[in-house]
Amino acid sequence: MILHVTRHGQVDLATDHPVGDSSLSTLGREQAGRLGEKLKEEGFSGSIFSSPYLRTVETAQIIADVVGGRVIPAPAMREYVIREDQVDAFRGATAKQLKELYSRVEDWAAMDYPWWTSEVESPEDIEARVAPLVDETSAGETDALLVGHGASIAGVHRYILNARAPEISDQGKHGWNCVLSSFKFGSTFEVVRFLETDHLPEKLVTSNAKSRAEVLKEEAGGGEYLKWRRR
Hints:
Largest sheet: 6 strands, mixed
Number of helices: 6
Strand content: 5-15%
CATH topology: Rossmann fold
CATH class: Alpha Beta
Order of helices and strands: EHEHEHHEHEEEEH
Oligomer: single chain
Helix content: 25-40%
Strand order of the largest sheet: 3-2-4-1-5-6
Low-confidence stretches: 224-231
CATH superfamily: Phosphoglycerate mutase-like
C-alpha cells in the first residue's frame, strides 16, 4: 500500500472563526483541488484521515470530492501546542459538527471530545501520537492519505524515515501547503516522493501567508523562519 501525507491548504487569517480554527483561503482551496487531481491521476481512492481542525478537514473534503473518497477525523494529526495559553479560547468542532459541515466525513466517524490538549508538546511528543495512526494505516491493504499541519506531518516523516530511510530523515525542510510525500509499504519499503510540490504552479507554493520566494528570501537574509511553521 501507499501512504500519502500532506499539509492543509493556505488558511484565510481574516476569517479566524471560531478562535484558532480558520478555514481555507481561495488560494488554499485551489491548492487542495490541485492535490486532489494529482492523487486522482495516480488512481488514489483510499480513506483520508484528517486532523479535526476546519482547515484540514476542508482540505480533505476538497480532495475527497475529486477522488471520490471519504474523510475520517484523526485527532492524532492535530496542530501542536507550543505555549500553555495557546488553546485557552479554542473550541474545536465535534464529530457531529464536522459531519454537518462536510459531506465527505464518514457517517460513523466518532472521536473523543475535547480531542486537543493544552499541554505543551515536544517533537518527540508529536511523533509518539502520530505513530499508532501511521502503523494502522500503513498495515492496511488500501492506500491512505494523512492530512495534518506542519508539525504533525513532520512527526509522521520522522517516524517513518528514522526507522526506514534515516539517510534522508533530515532533508525535509519545508512543509509547504498541500505538499505531498508518499511512502510504499509492503514486502519492501520505498520513498515514492518526499515533500514534492510538482502538482502546484509556483504561484501556489506557500507556507500560509508567505510565498515560497518570500520564505527563501527571508532565509537567505538570515531571517528566523520556523522550519515547521504553525497553522
